[in-house]
Amino acid sequence: MTDRVAIVGVAQTRFSPKRADVNVGELAYEAIEQVLQQTGLEIGRDIDNSISCSHDIWDGQTISDIGITDVIGGHLRNEEKMAMDGSTAAYYATIGILSGEFDCTLLLAHTKMSQTDRNIVNNTAFDPIYTRMLGFDFTTAAALQARRYMSVYGITEEQVARVVLKNLSNARLNPVMHNGRDLSLDEILAAPLIADPLRALDLAPDSDGAVALIMASEERAKQITDHPAWILGIGSCYDAHYLGDRDLADCMALEKAAAMAYRMAGINDPRRQVDLVELGDEFSYQELLWLEGLGLCKRGEAGCITAEGLTARSGELPVNPSGGLLGGVPANVAGLNRVAEAANQVMGRAGEVQIKDVEIAVAQGHSGFCGQHQCVIVLGREPRSLSASAGRSR
Amino acid sequence: MTDIFAPSENRDYFEVDQHITASSRYYAGRVGSRFFIALRDEQKILGSHCPKCNLTYWPPRNTCGRCFSQLSESDLLEIGPLGTLETFTRPNYTPPQPVPAAPVLYGIIKLDGADTGMAHLLGEVDFENLKIGMRMQPVFAEAPAANILAIRYFKPAEE
Lengths: 394, 159
Description:
The complex is a heterodimer of chains A (394) and B (159).
Chain A: E1 5-12, H1 24-39, E2 49-53, H2 56-59, H3 69-72, E3 79-82, H4 87-98, E4 104-112, H5 118-123, H6 138-153, H7 157-171, H8 185-189, E5 193-195, E6 198-199, E7 208-217, H9 218-224, E8 229-238, H10 252-265, H11 270-273, E9 276-278, H12 284-293, H13 302-307, H14 333-347, E10 360-367, E11 373-380
Parallel strand pairs in A: 2-3, 2-4, 9-10
Antiparallel strand pairs in A: 1-7, 1-8, 4-7, 5-6, 8-11, 10-11
Helix pairs in contact in A: 4-14, 7-12
Chain B: H1 29-42, E1 45-50, E2 55-57, E3 76-79, E4 83-89, E5 105-111, E6 118-122, E7 135-140, E8 151-156
Antiparallel strand pairs in B: 1-2, 1-3, 4-5, 4-7, 5-6, 7-8
């Protein structure tokens, strides 16, 4: 039984506001075909488990994976769907391989946000008894969180706008992103208000696209590639559901998920040990909040370190050098894209967005409004045994 | 449905128009039913008190997420009606559910006696005058409503 797990292949479609030419299965297959070609693996012979991640209402079908069994090989063996952010697929793929049940897992996340209205989809995430009929969606919930966080920690609109400036500029270099552009702070701060204090450029845009990854046990990984991205740590945690259940300026679930992942990875000083971060900036202010939750700076400091350029591509701790979700990544796909971009950096395959000498990268994804569920994946260039450290020291 | 003969860029691609509608009746449960009946008949707001953690939750619930104690109807107590505004926003678009308010303002109000907040609509106030920490009071619907809109919205408190 293996105690080391690695990402051995990464493929992404180009993301775009609308792919009218393909249905979800065709879109998914674009990424799957690429990752199989890249690794030289055959879906029938080599893959022994599949995990997909998509959203029922966006796909227009409950148990949305049942419509794509043919492209992911669900008719050949086990296939499971994560009805959550794609980062959680990497979490479960790791566990499946560590258990000894599987050796080589195909991961897929796909969403076509152009197929329906994001606010209607996201309104159904709110409980039907007390909240849904008030018309909340992820944007109004995020606006409530943004104002609370900015007020409690003295984060300024300009500091938040610097996240947009950085990520959209980074996205210009990344061929999969569609929202890359060079803007001035004034232009970002003059964008129309969508839900005060959030402006148009503070929201990750509607996007269509798919990401596919292959993860393998140590033995298989070494047969497939000389430069895998090793999983060093994983963590996952939920916060309470109702909007008023928590102080929205806090991020308890992320702090716990990060603590689990860091403990497995042997990281005790993340700011010093982590070389690069790809996190879920579904809304701009979240990059600052999640940086704090990941323990990469003190609470309330993320605005300052961003303004100082520490998180820029050329900074001491590049954050979202890929362009982040603001660069144009579909919901659900978001977290698997974070893992994919972080893995590419560790494998030295990030092309135009490559940062030099990335030994350890952190990927973070979240599901639900205001980051209710959090998942943290730590990746590294050198392998590390997971079984000795996994969850034993709690 | 997209008119496949109209926009040239869509000539080769067909879109199938679908509408999913479902009239649903979601059960409020034991403590939730008590909450809605007290709100409708007495204009009282109930929360659930966990005696072990000494925490009072809104919405009322029958489990304390902190200590996993079972809570019941006997753990309900009246909270509010006054409370403190924790955060707020104003969407500049039509929300995905029809909301009886113009303009639409949202806030989270921590009711006196409760340890968690209530997300709801705000009214009778200009957005520019809203401030975190403001005292708020509920405005109840004139005709009793059997849902959360039995509270129409919260407005600045007249205290």
